[in-house]
Amino acid sequence: MTTAARVWRVFAREVRAARRTRTYLALALVTAVAVFGVAVAGGGPTGGYVPTVIDVLVVVEVLVPAVAFAVGYRALADPISRGELDVLETYPLPAWGYVGGTYAGRAVVLSALVGVPLAALGAYVATTAGPETTVFASHRGIDSPWLYLRFLALTLVYGLVSLSLVLLLSVVAGSRARALVLALAGLLVLTVGGDVAVFAALDGGVVTSGSLGGALAVTPAGAYRGLVFDQVLYVAVPTRSSFVSGWLATGALLCWWVATLVGAAVVATLR
Prior knowledge:
The protein has helices at residues 3-19, 22-42, 44-47, 49-72, 77-82, 84-88, 95-128, 145-173, 176-203, 212-217, 220-236, 246-270; strands at residues 135-136, 141-142. It has 271 residues and is mostly helical. Helix 4 (49-72) packs across helix 9 (176-203) and helix 4 (49-72) packs antiparallel against helix 11 (220-236). The mean pLDDT is 82.
């Protein structure tokens, strides 16, 4: 059996386990209630896709990392505490393969938990918004389902980056109790810590008003937010200019994703 086949078995095990876990169904329902509740309360679905994105963006920015941490905080901490990684040393499956297969399986679960409710919200907008909402805000902006699909794709990418970070924290923790503490700390850092650090640097003069956009773009939440504005909201209103560099934000998310996954594999190998 090849290494790829063994990694696939780890991946398939994670997906099968998720299908038997009712907690994930409850998590999906909570996610759906949250995004639908905020969108309907703000009136976005009757206005169109872009108004809906505006309504749910702040909630999604916090909700997606929370779901990612719920899905992944025990992903490697439990196997480590049970000694599974020690047992793997007697099998021809490297630690990085176990980490990769676990991440891929949990990524499928996270994509379903986040993607299905947001896709359902998009379908609801398609059946709720009137034809006149293709042009909104006194004819200054053009609405389109393609812009919502961009939002959905960027949100899934943000979720996958969040999951790679929580996987790193999980393997560093090595036990369920420490994994929970690190997960909560990581969630706070991911959702608000980056912005707080940037604005503290701005107040201290380390970051200037001219470099503020670039500084925000290198944090995961700031990069995601900047890309949503750049690729979704400002596209609908051509007169607006981007606040952050799209290339910088994309590169930052890619760096966070690669660095955290590689870090998780390295720490798992050293354990």
